[in-house]
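Tokenised fold entry reproduced for everyone:
>
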Amino acid sequence: MRLYIAVSSLILLMSWQLIAFSQDATDTTYKNNLLPSPSFTYAPETDLVLGVFALYQFKTPKSDYATRPSNAILYLASSLKKQRTARLEYTLFL
């Protein structure tokens, strides 16, 4: 029952997504984006793995509109065999 509540809470929490509004042709400012997503995997060694995957895109200060957006990826997961994973990856464009 606790697993069902945890999975349901995770799905409910991560099912929403931020709405990205379209930019006007005269608007040259970049809006940061956050995209969360649930993660489910299975392997015989780890059993069921439940996790959260989040992608954050942003531009560094003093960057112009032609500069590519930087990003950060965060992954947190836990398996039913009590194995935990945390990973942070990033790419910065200056």
